[in-house]
C-alpha cells in the first residue's frame, strides 16, 4: 500500500497482518509535515500514524527518521525507483508552484517571481494542472532553469537530487531539515548568495532520496526476497 494507508488499504493490511501475510507500505510522496498551520499542510501527521504495515519502504534517511518516531515497523531505505528525466544549462530561476489550496505560498512565489523579473533575473513558472494562476491553460510557463525555488512539492526534492540548485520558501515544511542558506527570506536573496551559488551543498538532497534506478530496484527486490 501507499504511505497514507487510506481506510480500505488500512483494513486490508490489518487483515493480512492477522493472517501472517507480509505487508509493505511504499513512500510515493514527500511526507514532511508541519505541526504549525496544519490547515495549509499537504502532509499531515496521519501519513505516518495511520500506517499498519509490518514493513515501510522509504526514499531516504530523513523520512526514515520521521517514520521511526511514529512506528515500530521495519523501515527500509530503498531510494526512489523512478525520477523524471530532467536537466538544464539555462540561466535563471524556475518557480515550482504548489496545489491551488496553498494560496498564501503561491501568492508569495508569484510576487517573488515578478520582483525577480524586475531585477532582470530570467524566470519561469511551473504550475500544477487546474491551478487558479494558470493562464490560457499553460502549465509550464518558461523552460526549466538551473536554479529552482519551491515549497513542499515532491518535484523540488527530485530536482535537488538531479543536481539543480534548489531553494525553498520560508514557509516550507523542509525548512527545519535544510541549512539556512537554502531558505528564501526576501527578494534580495540572490544578491547576498554568491558564495552559496558557487559552493552549493548538492549532497543534502541525498538525505531525502538516497538512490534511484537500478540501485533502488535492486534494494526493493532484495528486501522482498528476504521476506518470502
Q: Topology as H/E string?
A: HEHEHEEHEEEHEEHH
For the secondary structure, the number of strands is 9
Spans of at least 5 consecutive residues whose pLDDT stays below 50 are: none
Rg for CA atoms: 19 Å
Distance between the termini: 17 Å
**Secondary structure tally, helices:** 7
**If you average the pLDDT, what whole number results?**
85
In percent, how much strand structure appears in the residues?
Answer: 5-15%
Give the overall silhouette: elongated
Helix content estimate: 25-40%
Main sheet specs: 6 strands, mixed
Structural class: alpha/beta
Strand order of the largest sheet: 6-5-4-7-8-9
Describe the structure.
The chain has 228 residues and is α/β, with parallel strands linked by helices. The chain contains seven helices and nine strands. The protein has a six-stranded mixed sheet with strand order 6-5-4-7-8-9, sandwiched between helices. It starts with 6 loop residues before the first helix and ends with a helix.
Entry summary:
This protein has helices at 7-18, 46-49, 61-68, 103-118, 154-161, 194-198, 213-227, and strands spanning 24-26, 55-58, 74-77, 93-96, 123-126, 140-141, 147-150, 165-169, 183-184. It is α/β, with parallel strands linked by helices. The two termini are 17 Å apart.
Key descriptive features of the protein:
228 residues, alpha/beta
Amino acid at each position: 500500500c501507499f504511505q497514507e494507508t487510506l481506510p480500505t488499504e488500512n483494513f486490508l493490511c490489518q487483515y493480512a497482518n492477522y493472517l501472517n501475510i507480509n505487508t509493505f507500505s511504499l513512500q510515493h510522496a514527500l511526507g514532511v509535515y508541519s505541526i504549525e498551520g496544519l490547515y495549509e499542510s499537504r502532509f499531515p501527521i496521519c501519513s505516518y500514524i495511520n500506517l499498519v504495515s509490518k514493513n515501510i519502504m522509504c526514499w531516504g534517511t530523513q523520512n526514515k527518521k520521521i517514520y521511526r518516531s511514529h512506528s515500530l515497523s521495519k523501515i527500509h531505505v530503498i531510494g526512489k525507483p523512478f525520477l523524471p528525466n530532467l536537466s538544464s544549462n539555462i540561466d535563471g530561476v524556475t518557480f515550482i508552484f504548489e496545489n491551488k489550496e496553498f494560496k498564501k505560498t503561491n501568492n508569495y512565489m508569484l510576487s517573488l517571481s515578478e520582483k525577480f523579473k524586475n531585477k532582470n533575473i530570467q524566470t519561469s513558472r511551473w504550475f500544477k494542472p487546474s491551478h487558479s494562476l494558470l493562464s490560457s491553460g499553460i502549465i509550464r510557463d518558461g523552460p526549466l532553469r538551473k536554479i529552482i525555488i519551491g515549497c513542499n512539492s515532491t518535484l523540488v526534492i527530485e530536482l535537488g537530487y538531479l543536481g539543480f540548485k534548489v531553494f525553498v520558501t520560508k514557509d516550507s515544511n523542509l525548512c527545519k531539515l535544510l541549512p539556512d542558506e537554502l531558505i528564501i527570506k526576501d527578494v534580495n536573496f540572490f544578491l547576498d548568495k554568491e558564495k552559496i551559488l558557487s559552493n552549493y551543498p548538492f549532497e543534502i538532497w541525498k538525505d531525502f532520496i538516497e538512490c534511484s534506478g537500478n540501485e533502488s530496484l535492486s534494494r526493493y527486490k532484495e528486501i522482498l526476497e528476504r521476506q518470502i
